[in-house]
Amino acid sequence: MCARGTETSQLSAPVWSVDPRTGNRREQVATEATAEEVDETVRAAHAAAPALAERAQRARLLRAAADLFDQHVDKVVECADAETALGPGRLSGELTRTTYQLRAFADIAEAGDFLDVRIDHADAALAPPRPDLRRWKVPLGVVAVYSASNFPLAFSVPGGDTASALAAGCPVVVKAHPDHPGTSELSAALLHRAAAEAGLPQEVVSVVHGFDAGVELVRHPVVAAAGFTGSVRGGRALFDAAAARPRPIPFHGELGSLNPVVVSAAAAAERAEEIGAGLAGSMTLGVGQFCTKPGLVLVPAGEAGDRLVTSLTAAVSDTEPGVMLDPRMREAFVAGVRERAELPGVESPVTPGANGEHTVSGGFLTVDAERLAGGGEYELLTEECFGPVTVIVRYEDVPQVSAVLARVPGNLTATAHLGAAEAGDAGAGDAGAGDGGAARLLAELTPLAGRILVDGWPTGVAVAPAQHHGGPYPATTSTSTSVGGTAIERWLRPVTYQNAPQALLPAELREDNPAGVPRTVDGVREN
To answer: Which of 98, 255, 412, 481, by CA, is between 20 and 30 Å from 450?
Structure first.
């Protein structure tokens, strides 16, 4: 059993854990929260907020949580695999990433750099005179987190949104994803134990279930911000609800991404087989259920491009069928592939789609750049199709590459595969993708995405201070990142104190800096 079952309320629908490998119910793990229960949960979280005032306390909570997940790794991975079919290997890696995130945000909370403390002393000699100004950042309040289907740990109950919000000093109410409710309940129980070990009330992190509960959550007047990872349709509905409130709130949503790849003529000539095999591995990883899956790949026409496609064909054909996260996603994948394959001029060298009763097989579609650049019904090919499929666009020349990229919406990532000479000399006159060379190609990709890769594959997002996991709409609804240390900035707002007596100031803003945080004083950085 993943989590304790609960009795079904007459007012609440049961929440079942389902095995995606068979479609069978495993156990009831919760009930859907009513509007009244959502209200009680949010208000309890709000009441617990003062307990998170001390940064050291937040750090203890996050480290205790990481330790508990490490201690229960087998149980957590077993439960998550039973509900997602992602496999123990993939899930063990995801749990390692999750505990790393928790500890990283503990370090961030302790260090205090994120407070961005700035002090300008009074100066009557300036024109106009300057008062004493002391600026820092404070937590927004209760944060609503909407779990992702494809990452039951790293982007769900104990994931980056939760960790960064707690590090900022914000209580969290998580709307669990229906694909892994048992894992969500188990994760919540471990987080509650961590809170107790850190001397905090368990209400600093809570979980609710149910579609209606998710809507009630974003509309609740006490909720101050929201983080979402999911579909464009679902995320946009919640984003609109957040904006339509009497008091609108920030909604940081990750919605959908095509993650275009441009393979230069030189790159294809030099390593067509390597690129084809690498693409197959990236676009089928996790049964194509990564938000950074390369979904549109521009490949040159001609012999070198043909070799790349041949390599891709062989590698994808050798990929075993897999189980998607739930039947609804499987049906959407099959229908989406069919609709795209029916477009005139679209071919399917390896046909993706249903394979058996519960599995799908990977594949890819091909189309000429001229057709896609023309828009119209081919705009469908520039929309994400969740699952193990990608679209290969064969281009004749550089203007066709530019014309296709002009049709591509905002993305999390964009990738360029370059030849050796191009990579070594970004100013080269012919980068195989434009008269301006490799530098021009990167400049053309930069407006399309939040992370630009060279000679790599976008699946896999390192948790690091310099990471940015976001991008222009519809990739995300804000300019923030959901991965990396700066993700904490989503849950903060700046406040300046003017001419406030020292005794009334927070410790971080006092002249003697008893909190020991890094500060910028009169324009000079102090560590």
So the answer is: 98
